[in-house]
Please model this.
Amino acid sequence: MMTNASQITQAGLSSLVEDLRQAGIQVIGPARVTDGAVEYQRLADLSGWTPGVQPRRSLKEWFLPVTEPLFRYRKQGPRVLVEELAPPDAPRVVLGAYPCDAAALPILDAVMGWDYRDDPWFARREATVILSQVCPGGDASCFCTDVGIAPDSAAGADLRMCPIESGWRVQVETGKGEAFLQQWSRHFQPANGSKNPLPPAGPPRSEAPRANPERVRAWIETHFEDPFWQEVALRCHGCGGCAAVCPTCHCFDIVDEPENPVQGARRRNWDTCQTALFTRHASGHNPREDQCGRCRQRVNHKFAIYPARFGRILCTGCGRCARTCPSGQDITEILARIDQWAAGPGGA
Amino acid sequence: MARIGVFVCHCGENIGRTVDCARVAEALRDLPGVVHSVDYKYMCSDPGQQMVKQAIAEKGLTGVVVAACSPHMHEKTFRRAASGAGLNPFLCEMANIREHCSWIHEDREMATAKAIDIARTLVEKVKRNRPLKTIQIPVTRRALVIGGGIAGIQAALDIADGGREVVLVEKEPSIGGHMSQLSETFPTLDCSQCILTPRMVEVYQHPRIRLYAYSEVESVQGYIGNFRVTIRRKARSVDEDKCNGCGACTQACPNRKVPSEFECGLGKRPAIYVPFPQAVPNLPTIDRSRCLLFLNRAKGRPDTCKKCAEACSKGAIDFDQQDRLVTEEVGAIVVATGYQVYSIGKETGRDDLHGYGEYGYGTLPDVIDGLQFERLASASGPTAGRILRPSDGKEPKRVVFLQCIGSRDPAKGMEYCSKICCMYVAKHTMLYKHKVHDGQATVFYMDIRAAGKGYDEFTRRAIEEEGARYIRGRVSRIWRDGEVLKVQGFDTLSGRPILMDADLVVLATAVRPQPGIEALAQKLNVSYDRHGFINEAHPKLRPVETSTAGVFVAGACQAPRDIPDSVAMASATASKVLGLFASEMLEREPTVAVVNDALCAGCFHCERVCPYGAVEHREVRNRAGQVVRVVAYVNPGVCQGCGTCQATCPSKSVELQGFTDDQVYQQIQALGL
Amino acid sequence: MRELRDLARRLLEEGSVQTVLGWEEGPRGARPVFVRRPEEAERLIFDPRCVHNLAAYLSPRRPHLKGLGRIAICVKPCDAKAVAGLIRETQVARDQVVLIGLRCGGVLPDPEGRETLSGETVADRCRGCPDREPRLADHVVGTAAEGFPGPSRRQQKVEELLALSPDDRWRFWQQELARCVRCHACRQVCPLCFCEQCIADKTRPRWVESSAHGRGNLAWHISRAMHLAGRCVDCGECERVCPGGIPLGLLTRRVAKTVGERFGWRPSDDPAVPSPVGTWRPEDPQEFIL
Amino acid sequence: MDGEGARPFEPRITAFVCNWCTYTGADLAGTSRLQMAANVRIIRLPCTGRIDPMFIVKAFERGADGVIVSGCHPADCHYNAGNYHARRRFAIFRELVDFLGIDPGRLTFSWVSASEGAKWRDVVNETVDRVRRLGPFTAYRELVTDPPVTRVIGEEVPA
Model:
C-alpha cells in the first residue's frame, strides 16, 4: 500500500470539499474559532482550513461528543416508553487530522469494543474517513516518539497527506481510504514518482527520548504509595483541562435529564478523573480523597493500567496537557523523573 | 414511592362555574405517583374532609393536594384533617384554583388548563415534602422590661401580678418617667403624682420585680424564650445596701447650683441628689460631672470636699464605685423607653432636624416648653405650683401657647402628629386660668385633634368655659421688647396678620423617641422607623409585637402616646408575655432553615443576610475532638423562615423546610409539561 | 529576586513558615512552586510571567495541601484582593498565613510570554490597574513600577456588546459557549470558588445540568457569574485556563460593572470592607421594579 | 404561528411571589373578581429573599416565555429585609442575563402589596402583553435539539 500514492492540488482539495458537501458528507478539519485558536471544525469550504497548526483540542470530541443523547424516555400511565434516536452514522471526512489525534482512535477502539460494543462510537468511526496530515512540527511539549508514535505515523489514518509544492501528496493506508480515493478519484492525480515514500515529517526531533515507557510502567506498578505522588500533585488545581484536551482521555458520565414529570433524555457526558466528584460515593465517602490520588490516577491509567489491559499506552504524546495546564504541570517532566528513578539503582 | 391523593373542590359554583373540576381530577390521575384523584362539591365541608381522611387511610396516601381556595383560607383546615387521619400535616398542600384561577378568568378552557397546571405543581411539590414536626423551644419564664415610665411600670406590675418574675431596667436614678413630672393629667385633671407614686412603690416592693434603676441594657443575646441580657449598673457612688435615704448627704453638698433635670432646668439641685422627693428607689446619686471631688480627680488633683461622706452616718458614700455588669436570663422583653421632647433651639443633634431659632427658645428665658410649664404648674415644682415666669418671677397675665412645634412639619424633619399636644395645651390653659384668674391664655393651633374619650369635651371646656382664646394659625417670630414678648403670627381664619404682646410663651414641642433608641433597637434586632420609633410587627393585628419574636413594645417609644394609650399597650404586652409564658415549651412552625453540615463551606453569607441573626457558627470536630471546620448553624428558635439564606448560599447547603430547593424545582419542572 | 529569595530562605530557616508558595521557572515558563527547604528558595522567581493567582491554593478545599504547615504566599497587589476575599468569607484566618507582597508593574497574558512588558503586551486585566503597592502583606518586596493606562480591552468589549441588540448578544454568546465542555476548570482555578460541593455538582435538585449542551452551559455560566457577584477580584484566571478559550472575563466584568455602578463596590484588599452580598441600602436603585 | 386557524401565541409565564404581599394581593384580586390574562402560573415562596435566580433560569429551561418575580414593597417585608436582598440580587441577575442576550422584557420584577389586587392584575396583563409581543422564547427551547426519534420501545414497569 505504501506505494499507492496520489496527489491533489489545493484547488483540487477545494473542489473535493465542495463535492463532499454537495453529497451530504460532512467535512471536518482544523480551522480558527472566534478567539483565534484552531480547533477541529465543520468546514463549509476550504477557506478557513488551517492545517499547519495543532488544534487546541483533540479530534476525540468528533467520536465521543462532549455530550450526546443516548435515548429519550416518556412515562405513560404505568409504562415507560424508551425512544430510540437516529444513530450518528452520517458520513464524514476528517481533513488534516494530526497524527497524534488519528493515532488515538485505534487506541480507544480497544476500550470501546472491549466488553460490549459502544454503538455510537463505532457508528461514528465507521462513518468517518480520516485524512491525516504528516505533522508539520511541534514544540517542546511534544513527545509522540516517546510513546511509539511518530510525526508521520499512519495509525488511525485512512489516508495520509503530506504537503508538496503543488498541493498534497496522499497515501492510502486502509481499504476505507482506498475506497474513498476511488470514489473521488477525479480530484486526485497519481503521485509523481510513485516509488517515493512520503517525505519525512516536519522538523526532526533533536532530543533523545525522555522516558522509556516500559520502565515507567514497571515503576508505577510498584510505587503506588510513593511520596512522589504527594509532591507532584501540589500545584494541581484539579481543573481537568488536561483531560478536556487529551485525545485519549475517554471517561464519561451518564445522566438522566428530566424535562418535566413525565419525559426526559439520558445523556452521556465527558467526565474526568481529575475532579473529586468522579469518585465520590453516594455515601459521601471518596476513595480518591485528594488531588494526589487523582494526579497519580491519570499517569497510572495512561501508562500502566491501560497498557496492562489493552497492550497500548493511553497517550499519543501530543503534548496538549502540558500546554493547557494553568499551573505548568508537564507530563514529560513527570515521566522523565520516573524513568530516572526506574533506571537508577533500586529502580523498578 | 409516592402515593398522592388529589382532591378537587368545586366550592359550590365558585370554582365549578369556570373550571371543569372533573377534568382537573382526571388529568391529575395520569400523573406518575397520583393514586387517587377526585372532585367534590365542597371539600372543606365535613363530608369533604371525611373523603380526604378516608382516602389517606384506605389508599395509604403519602401526600395530599387539595385543589380549592387559597392556602391562606383553608390550609390549616386540611392539614388538620390530614393529621387526623394519621398523615403528617406538612404532607398536605393547597392548590389555589379559586382566588388565583376561577375567580379571575372567564374562559372555561383556559381556566381549566390553568387549574390543571396549578394542581400539578403542587402534586410535584408534595412528592418532595418531608414530614415536619413543630419545633419546641424551652422558655425562660422571666421578663425584662426596659424603661421605668408609666408604660414600663404597668407592664412590669401586670406581668409580676400574673405570677412571673420581672427585671425592670431604668436608666435614670428613679423610675417614674415623664409622668412623674406632670402636674395634672387630661382630661380628668387628676394629680399625676397621686396616681403614679403608689404604682412606683408597688414596683419597688413587689416580690417578683427586680429593679435596676440608674442602669442600662448593655447587650442582648439569644432569642425568644431564651434571651441573655447584660445590664450595666452605673456607679451611683453610693452603696445601696448601706444608704438609708436620710438625705443628709444632699444637704451637705456645697455645689447646689446644678440645673435639675427633673425640673427641666427651672430648679437647682446639688451634685449628690435624689431627683425628686418621691423617687424610687429613694437613693442619692453623685453626678460625677458636677461633684467637686470628681472634677478635681479629672484634673489630676487630690480628692477634696467629701462633705457628703462626712455627713453620712452609714458610710454609704463610695467615691471609687465602678459600673457593674450583671447578666439576666429572660424569655421575653418589653421595650418601653418612652419619649423626649424636641429640642427647639438651634442645636438638634441631628442633621435632618432643624430647630426653631426664630422662637428664641434658650435665649429668651420666658419662652419655655410644655414640660417646663408642667413643672411651673406642679405643686411640688420650683414655684410651688404658682405660675411665675422664669425671667423675673412675675405672674404672667398673657400666656401664648403654640401648638405643633416641630410636629406635622416635614421641613423641620418630623411630619407626624405628636398626638398629645392638643390635649395638654388645653389642659395648660385651664391650669393657668385656675391659678391666674385674670390671665388670658391664647393658643395658636393648626387643627385641634381631640379624638378620645372625653377629649373633645375637654377642649371645648377650655375654650367655652375657661376662656382660652384659640387662633388658627402659626407664629412666625417672637422677640423681646422690654418686659414683654412680641408674638408675630397669622390668623388663617380671618386672613389677618397678628402681632400681640405676651408675658410667657409655651411651645408644645414634638414628641420624639429617647436618644440612643437606635442603638438599643439594634441590640434587640428590632426595626425602627426613620424617626427612631420602634416598628410594630403589624400596624393593625400585631400592634405590640416587634419584628423580633419575644420582643414587645409599649408606650411612646413606638409612636407618640398619651397615658391611657401607654398603659393599655403595656397591659397588652403583659398579656402577650404571660401568654408566651403559659407553657414551659414554645411551639414554632417548622418552616425554618436547616444547614447541611457536610456541605457547608462556612462562608457565612447566610449570616450576613439573615434578618434575625439566627445564624451561628458551629464547630465540626473529628473523632479526636479537633475542630476541622466551622460551619453555619441556624437557631430554629430565632429563624422566622424567610429563606433568604438559602437563595444566597452558593452551594445550597442550607434548606428552608417546607420550601426546599427540591420542592421548588419540582414545581418548576411540573410547568414544563 | 534576591530580596524575595533571601526572605523566603529566612522564613523557612527560622521556621516561621514551613512552605513558601511562589513561582519558579518551569518547562513552559513561570509556574507555581511550593518551596519547603531553605536551599530551594533559589528556585523562586518573580517577573511579568508570574501571572498565576496563587491565592487559589489557600482555599481549604484543597486537602492535599493541608500537610504543608504554615504557608507564606507570594501575592501581587491584585492577588491580595483574593486573599482578602478568603479572609472576609472566613476561609482563611489572617494570622494563619504569611503574605509576601510583591510590588507589581503588570504581567504578561500568559506564563510563557517572551515579550517585554509594554502597553501592547501587558495582560488585559493590568490595563488601568491602580494597585502597584501591596497593602495586605506581612512583607513587601520588589521595586516600585509604573502601571499601564486603561481602559482594558475587556471593558471595551463589554461596552461594545452592550450596544448590540439582545438577539445579537445571544448569538455572540451561543457561539462562544458552544466551546464549553463543562470541565469546570474556570471554577477550579478560581480563588473564590471554594464551595464544599459546587451547585453544578449537586444532583437533587439539578439546577445546572451537567451536559455541555446549550441549556446546561448557559445555566452554568449564569450561575458562576451570579455567585461571583461582588466577590470576583478580576484576576482573569478563569479565562486563562478555559480549554475552550471562552471570554469568561466578559461575564464577570459585566457583573462587576453592575455591582460597581449600583452598589459602589470594587474589589478590595481590605478584608474588613463588607461585600455587597449580604448588605443593602434602603435607597438601592430599583428602576427596574414595577 | 404556522397554518390557518392556529391559535394565537399564548405566552407561558411563571411567577415567583412572596407569601405575604404578592400572593395575598393576588388572593385579593381573586376575591375582588378582577379579570386578568390566564397565562401566569404562580409558585409561592415565603419571601422574595427566598427566590433564587436559578428558579428563573429553570423556568426558561422548562419552556417559560416570561417570568415574574414579585414581593413586598421596600420597608414592608414580612421578614424585614428579604426584599432588599432580593432587589440587589435581581438587579445583578437582570443585567447579567440581558448581557447574555435574554431580552429583559421577558422578566418582570414588581412590588405588589397585599392590598394591591388591582396592581397585580396590571402586572399580569402588562407582562403577558409584553411577552406576547416578544413572541415565544424559541431560542431558549432550541438550546438542546436531539436527533429524531426512530423507534419507541414500551415496557411495563415492574410491579
Remarks:
- The radius of gyration of chain C is 20 Å.
